[in-house]
Amino acid sequence: MAQLPDGEPVPDDGTLPDSALTDVGGRGFGVYLHVPFCASRCGYCDFNTYTASELGGADTEGYVEAVLAELALAAKVLPAPPRVDTVFVGGGTPTLLKPAQLGRMLEAVDRTWGLAAGAEVTTEANPESVDPASLRELRRAGFTRISLGMQSAAPGVLRILDRKHTAGRAPAAAVEAREAGFEHVNLDLIYGTPGETEDDFAASLAAVVRAGVDHVSAYALIVEDGTRLSARIRRGELASPDDDVAADRYLAAEAALSAAGLGWYEVSNWAADEAARCAHNLLYWQGGDWWGLGPGAHSHVGGVRWWNVKHPARYAARLAEGLSPGLGREILTAEQRHTEDVLLRLRLVEGLPLEVLDEPGRAAAGQALADGLLEPSAYADGRAALTLRGRLLADAVVHSLLAW
């Protein structure tokens, strides 16, 4: 699993500097809730997740109690933030918990800070972990959006990724979610898996379109150190992902999804309209505040970022002692916040105002425009917004604008 960053110690009571509390929620306030349980481990995944055998049994009820204890601590640290705009339950596989358990944690968030009217409430789910009955229960519990980990419609690709659902299960679950009353449904795709063919990815895109979802996320496979997939590639069992193939897959996704009426709004995300965009992720990309609950969860409030201890047992033990589960934190400098602002906002369809760039950055933007990487109409309006070619080279554009 990925290592947590270094940082200064978090105070035992989780107290934040006064400077972090002056404008909490000025760019939105959200709650992320991490569920660390998975039925099995996917070969490409390095997230902070654990199978029941790794934990000696998954104590889901004990986990819920620990989250409620962290919420009680959070209420003392942030006694009066704005109401919660978004809640996102991620994992792991959140739907290994019962809908009633997920609903209980959502109710606690509402009691602690209050959900804003029309708040977006998302849960991730593996397609095989939900059925029509559980989806209806989740909807009744207050969830308005669901994100299903499809990854591919090709059985061979799913096997390489160690996914357990059948090829048709994710689109079927998306239809069931709509029928259960979910307002917004996302399907996640991964492209560039070793062995994936052009036809495999075309079939995945076609399946997504047929499912009628209003949001699609598509990410190039990243091979993380320490994963089973990384070991298989190192042993020569599988080829390494190819950057040129990944670029071709991205272009295929843009063509198929835009033809189906889904427009890109972030480099890896497409939505049917503005209402279908993931408000929680936009909060991240636009520099909002959020409290991350659960083992290994990250938070950001007023320029202070912190992260919790990773293991569920240690997380629960610290909270049982009345201590913050925070392992470390960093207080971002103005330069760091500027860098992140450029890095994240440039990925959005609206781009970022040219005025936030320094003189070398504006000169680099002019060169990126000349190179066909920025939209001329947006540039004329004082914004740096990526073209399709610019999206393929987004990291390079960011580096140039920040003069790295």
TrEMBL record:
<dbReference type="Pfam" id="PF04055">
    <property type="entry name" value="Radical_SAM"/>
</dbReference>
<keyword id="KW-0963">Cytoplasm</keyword>
<keyword id="KW-0411">Iron-sulfur</keyword>
<keyword id="KW-0408">Iron</keyword>
<dbReference type="GO" id="GO:0046872">
    <property type="term" value="F:metal ion binding"/>
</dbReference>
<dbReference type="GO" id="GO:0005737">
    <property type="term" value="C:cytoplasm"/>
</dbReference>
<keyword id="KW-0479">Metal-binding</keyword>
<dbReference type="GO" id="GO:0004109">
    <property type="term" value="F:coproporphyrinogen oxidase activity"/>
</dbReference>
<dbReference type="InterPro" id="IPR004559">
    <property type="entry name" value="HemW-like"/>
</dbReference>
<dbReference type="GO" id="GO:0051539">
    <property type="term" value="F:4 iron, 4 sulfur cluster binding"/>
</dbReference>
<protein>
    <recommendedName>
        <fullName>Heme chaperone HemW</fullName>
    </recommendedName>
</protein>
<comment type="function">
    <text>Probably acts as a heme chaperone, transferring heme to an unknown acceptor. Binds one molecule of heme per monomer, possibly covalently. Binds 1 [4Fe-4S] cluster. The cluster is coordinated with 3 cysteines and an exchangeable S-adenosyl-L-methionine.</text>
</comment>
<dbReference type="InterPro" id="IPR058240">
    <property type="entry name" value="rSAM_sf"/>
</dbReference>
<dbReference type="InterPro" id="IPR013785">
    <property type="entry name" value="Aldolase_TIM"/>
</dbReference>
<dbReference type="InterPro" id="IPR006638">
    <property type="entry name" value="Elp3/MiaA/NifB-like_rSAM"/>
</dbReference>
<keyword id="KW-0949">S-adenosyl-L-methionine</keyword>
<keyword id="KW-0004">4Fe-4S</keyword>
<comment type="similarity">
    <text>Belongs to the anaerobic coproporphyrinogen-III oxidase family. HemW subfamily.</text>
</comment>
<dbReference type="InterPro" id="IPR034505">
    <property type="entry name" value="Coproporphyrinogen-III_oxidase"/>
</dbReference>
<dbReference type="GO" id="GO:0006779">
    <property type="term" value="P:porphyrin-containing compound biosynthetic process"/>
</dbReference>
<feature type="domain" description="Radical SAM core">
    <location>
        <begin position="23"/>
        <end position="262"/>
    </location>
</feature>
<keyword id="KW-0349">Heme</keyword>
<keyword id="KW-0143">Chaperone</keyword>
<dbReference type="InterPro" id="IPR007197">
    <property type="entry name" value="rSAM"/>
</dbReference>
